[in-house]
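My current task is to audit a protein record that another person submitted. Alongside the sequence sits a line of tokens, each denoting a local backbone shape. Please read both lines and tell me whether the tokens look consistent with the sequence. Do not assume that whoever made the record got everything right. Thanks in advance; the entry in question is below.
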Amino acid sequence: MNKILKTSALAATLLLAGCAKSGGDSHGALVVSIEPQRAVLSALAEPGTDIVTLMSRGANPETFEPTLAQRASLDDAAIYFATGALPFEENIRSAAGNLRFIDTSAGINPVYGTHSHAHGHAHDEHEGEHHHHEGEPDPHFWTSVEGTRVMARNMADALIAQDPENAEKYRARLSKLESRIDSVDTEVRTRFDGAHRKAFAVWHPSLSYFAREYGLKQVVVGQESKEMSVRQLRDVIESAKADSVEVFFFQKEYDSRQAESINREIGSRLVTIDPLDADWASQLIKIADELAR
């Protein structure tokens, strides 16, 4: 019932937002796919701008599908800021009509292979910097400092193009936001100063860009929607132990029963994170804190 009510409320919000005043002399909401985008866009847009997040909290971004009401409501939006990496966004793009569709991942150096390999292996995120491209690009660029920085610049460019009269205001806000992003980067790097390169386990490969950015190794142990076989479980545990994994990051939207069992076998600490939290800075610092312990 709660999910139905939330979906109905979101659809109503989108419909009302289409008639509201937005930044610059444009009407309609600014729509984003996920909460971290909303936080970044809020720091850049004109005060009072309607910003609507399409995906509800707790949803899986790789399986989420907007309702028909949400899709229809996008017709009245001023701009849709997509991550450029999630499956449902392509369907929106193909039916976008006159909607301005902005890919906020444009310019990102993708990490490849994290979503095409069999789970239960250690994936060295430095592989993403080479020309060996296996599988689809990892979509989770927003879980890194550089990804957030690129997103902010793409959003600022789109806002300036939409509202050139306020270009200097957008540039000033971008400069302030970039200072904040640099500060987060410094905080994270300070925690890793002098520390040896660490591996960590994660149920879903949501920290690929973070791992690449700070020279870490991400060991993916989850199967998401299906139970692992006895052999797969053994391989996962052996891989994590071989990499001296001390921390196992887990996302609350997944079933924790098997994760808790694997965590006990590895002998690691199970830490819940939320890569879709609007407070992206606190999430990155929390992850760094746990790894630096």
Remarks:
- DSSP finds ten helices and nine strands in the chain.
